[in-house]
Amino acid sequence: AQSVAQPEDQVNVAEGNPLTVKCTYSVSGNPYLFWYVQYPNRGLQFLLKYITGDNLVKGSYGFEAEFNKSQTSFHLKKPSALVSDSALYFCAVSGRMDSSYKLIFGSGTRLLVRP
Amino acid sequence: DAGVIQSPRHEVTEMGQEVTLRCKPISGHNSLFWYRQTMMRGLELLIYFNNNVPIDDSGMPEDRFSAKMPNASFSTLKIQPSEPRDSAVYFCASNPFPIPRLYIRGYGYTFGSGTRLTVV
User: Which of A47, A58, B15, B107 is 20 to 30 A off residue A20, Cα-Cα?
Assistant: First the structure.
């Protein structure tokens, strides 16, 4: 069965510092991996995805994520955090077999960037 | 583009009442998804349509839930009768590509702002 784990409920970082939001996954076969961001009272916004190819994926708003197959991880990173990055971040996975369209979301990690 | 439009934004209803949530996908998007978000269960896929046809409704909790897509520009999610445990934020999302091309084109889903349902 597909699953996603986001081990941290909240990540706190000072503005200007690098940030990492962790995600590990479990899926049969090769995964499709995604990051979404949710601002208060808003829907989810697509940040980036990994399908195949380069393990380092660059996305919106300066975010990037690194796919690590051996560690089954897809951590979200940003070199320099902004206060406006404060939001709820979701990692999602989809397998390439059977119900490959079904996105399974992690529980979410709240990112708080202090001025 | 106005994005995916959901209505109402907030709905408070009494247990036992019928509730109808509405969604207008982005024009030209031919895949539509209904998700439910709760603290306990996170984001759950309820049902998925492609070209107005329900493809997979295995996530629909029970028979009290039903979803329709009468045309390419409109979908409804109905709960009858509603129960307090149905309280959640319900999201609609659309995508311009049918599965499995969904991912190849690099497109993520476009989500609406959600409907916050409270059943008292």
Answer: B107
